[in-house]
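Checked the freezer inventory, then went back to the computational side. Two predictions to log before the end of the day. The first one is the construct we discussed on Monday; recording sequence and tokens without edits.
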Amino acid sequence: MPEPEHAGDERELRFRQLYLAHCRAIQAYAVRRAEVRADVPDVVAEVFAVAWRRLDDVPGTPADLLWLYAVARRVLASRRRGTRRFASLISRLELVSEAGSYPGPGADTLTERVRAAVAGLRPAEREALQLVHWEQLSHAEAAEVLGCSVNAVGIRVHRARRASAGPPWYQ
């Protein structure tokens, strides 16, 4: 049975409101986590494409942002897996032994040191720390995004802080 015409208008309005309310937050999330900055627009587009397809599953405010963060997390993880698979394929095709990681930018800026320190954390601790400090989520909100307990988020953030206590950017 087709839905009434106004239902489509309401759906579009809800999506527009969701997009306008959270596009910048999702973009910032992607900027801070994407391995290649040029991927950010694609990540944001994919997150909101998922939101459009699953609009009935998107919770109301304020949980909608947390839901979008969780989608963005999965989109980025999928992209990283795809990048790894592609790199592996290229390596096999070239029949060259793995030469290491791509060289980073030359200058040792504070941002690069922060990224290096954060990248050195275990993935679960890194994500918890980023959600709490970069996205400014509470431990409860971060737990919802990560699909774990509030206590687990607290432990992960504590471990991340302890592991990164040396760098001056955290003090």
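The second is the one RB wanted added to the comparison set:
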Amino acid sequence: MRTFTFQEFKPTIFFLLRFLGIYVVGNLLYGFFITRYYPGPDPVTSWVSHQSAVVVSAMGWKVHVVEMLARPTAFLKYGDDPVISIYEGCNGLNVMIIFVAFIAGFGPATKKMAWFVPFGLIVIHAANLVRIILLFFVTLYLPDFLYFAHKYLFTAFLYLIVFLLWIWWVRKIARHE
């Protein structure tokens, strides 16, 4: 029977410790951030809501944002009708924390990380905007499909983007260091 030594698993253990440490600290900071604006929406949720409204409006639908003062949410309204509610969890920050925790957990800070992390955050933000915009149209035209689309389909889409970024980082960029 083979015995394993700490040395064999040292890189994996340190990756997990760095990942979990950054993830926990990032989520604690995120929690403090959104709590500071409670009960209304935080600035990032407002920003994402307004960007979504600008894109949908540019596509020809007159959409505007109504921020709730008593809830951490903003509504995208089409005319006078609220179509979707963008809650603080929809702003993409939590997904970005997971992304950064993985990249930083994978190794020491490098020049490549200095460009890849901001690039990845922009890609995740853009994918999240696409997700919200698609949910807007699903709500308008396929409301019976909304639960599945929100809970599973578009969430999987967003995490697939993150996974592909991780694969790119591990296989193409970090491997050369």
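For RB: DSSP finds five helices and three strands in the chain. The mean pLDDT is 90. Let me know if you want it refolded.
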